[in-house]
Amino acid sequence: MASKILIIGACGQIGTELTSKLREIHGTKNVIASDINTRNLELVNSGPFEIIDAKNFNAIKDCCLHYNIDTIYLMAALLSATGEKYPMEAWDLNMNSLFHVLNLAKAGTIKKVYWPSSIAVFGPTTPRKNTPQHTICEPTTVYGITKQVGERWCEYYHKKYNVDVRSLRYPGIISHKAMPGGGTTDYAVEIYHEAIKKGDYDCFLSENTSLPMMFMEDAIKATIDLMEAPSEVLTIRSSYNLSAISFTPNDIFESIKKHIPDFSISYKPDFRQAIADSWPSSIDDSFARKDWDWRHKHNLDSMTEIMLKELRKKYK
Ligand code: AKB
User: Fold this and answer.
1) pLDDT, tens digit, for every residue of 172-214?
2) What's the ipTM?
3) Domains of the chain, with CATH numbers?
4) Ligand 1: lining residues by beta carbon, under 6 Å
5) How far is the CA of 253 from the centre of ligand 1 (A)?
6) CA 219 to CA 189: how far, in whole Å?
7) Among candidates 182, 313, 203, 183, which has minimal Cα distance to 253?
């Protein structure tokens, strides 16, 4: 029987592209997109769409029963920069939505859960280079705290109630369809848009701030590979470290300049600099590579080529 999937937060940066890919794999009518609002609706309205507030348990449950859902991808969250502006809202949304979905799995209403964590679970006391899977996690952002606590709950629900929950610690994700919203790594998407539109960019992080990043195609592949992996091979039920490339604003600037020689950049670090400084510069994802054979495809230059090509079409 075909899997019936609900994506909560389907209109966001990752949700939109995950919806398309899952519909390609499972069939359009078997993948229900949902969000609290209809921004980017044109990217997900090729199939069923429902308005769902991720904080509303009954709305999620009713939708699961109506469509006979067996798998939920919970993509709704307030990210690191927005979370610092609205700490209680971030806690409320990020934690309650997770409990709703875990409890539906515990009750047997659904069978499988995907929930994204983030490099934000790490903090200033974490080893910054090649950060291991198991290490000190003392996050200093509200978003990071919600992700760290969420990871503990995922592992707890798996061990205690046998809930099949799977998770990845996403790095910054770069894509050309929906814009990211409210993250610290957003600069690495904005810079491509501004390079095409204006030929210059004011960067909110400093020149040499190195952070772990990944092209969307790789992030979607990782998510689906993890969800399709046999349960027995998974040794991590909190959240897997996941890595592809690490670069600084200067590295991405130089990569864009290969295609747009007169592109210019200036640096005006704001409050997001402190968040970036608390995160790792590179990640050791050997558990993901060993357990379910994770491999990334894109490097900085291959990503730049695709980003510029696609955005040129968009803005022409
Ligand atoms: C953010 O910057 O908040 C996110 C993340 C790394 O989880 N992109």
Assistant:
1) 999 999 999 899 999 999 999 999 999 999 999 999 999 999 9
2) 0.98
3) 5-172+215-241 (3.40.50.720), 173-213+245-280+298-315 (3.90.25.10)
4) 79-80, 118-120, 143, 170, 172, 183-185
5) 20
6) 15
7) 203
